[in-house]
Amino acid sequence: MRLAFEAVSYSYAGGEDRKRSRKAKREREAAWGNAPDAVWALRDVTLAVEPGEFLGVAGHTGSGKSTLIQHMNGLVHPTCGRVLADGADLADKKVAAQVRQSVGLVFQYPENQLFANTVYDDVAFGPRNMKLSEVEVERRVREAMELVGLDMDALGERSPFDLSGGQQRRVAFAGVLAMEPEVLVLDEPVAGLDPLSRADFLALIARFHARGMTVVMVSHSMEDLALLSDRILVLSEGRVFALGTPAEVFADATALKAVGLAAPAPQAFASSLREAGFHLPRDLYDEATLATDIAAQLAGATAAKEGGADV
Ligand SMILES: Nc1ncnc2c1ncn2[C@@H]1O[C@H](COP(=O)(O)OP(=O)(O)OP(=O)(O)O)[C@@H](O)[C@H]1O
Predict the structure, then answer these.
(1) pTM metric for this prediction
(2) From the CA of 275, how far away is ligand 1's center (Å)?
């Protein structure tokens, strides 16, 4: 599924465009077009989430990330502009209802939304809403729980509230996966987890993407985004500040700093090393590749010295 944003602006004060007539929409657009920027949570956002891609979303706190992703399954509708799923406008209730089944949205701290008496019922909530047979619901619950590393037979009848925080998040995640979404939209999925669970979750998300799932992930960790994303979107004050490959987006550290972000540590260190005269050929560095290239450079310098050549 391709999700396209066409000149989307959103104001929490302005409400939704969905129920307005064409004339009313034009009038609103004209009126709100002159409103000060501060009013807008999103402002004139045009972009597309391509099928199968991993789109990372970054931005300073309050830059509009959560508002943006809530447009992706029709939970929030634009004040101005349109969101299209494979060309169909989410302003149409039927389209939005269908898209909601294909675009799985995992909120920040999703464990706070667990509600059922048993883990099984919680994970089964979405599939049951889709009016699937109980046999199919059970198949999906079992599979979704397996995917997140939980055993349905052992945990299905337990209360979700008796589980550890990490397990609760897995249950919440399984509830979205049980809908078998085409697109997975994650708002800070590893926030608040311990380092081991963090790494587990990120590996899990990477596996979904490797299987062909489209993933949109909001994160404050530039390192995680650099590692996982095909493209990164940077929002600033509700506007698209940058959209490109991690190497493109992290190339201009000064510009990023101006919107309250910092390039990943290995990337920033590589920049400093270049300024100090090191030759570092790659566009994007993680710790391991940076260590390899520094070692190669130092080995070359030592060999040249031992051979009597100038370095
Ligand atoms: N329910 C709401 N009512 C009014 N204003 C809101 C509401 N939710 C968000 N806003 C405002 O909209 C703007 C964008 O907020 P949003 O939560 O989308 O940003 P964010 O980038 O996700 O922030 P964070 O990183 O802190 O989660 C902010 O100015 C915020 O104060």
Answers:
(1) 0.88
(2) 38
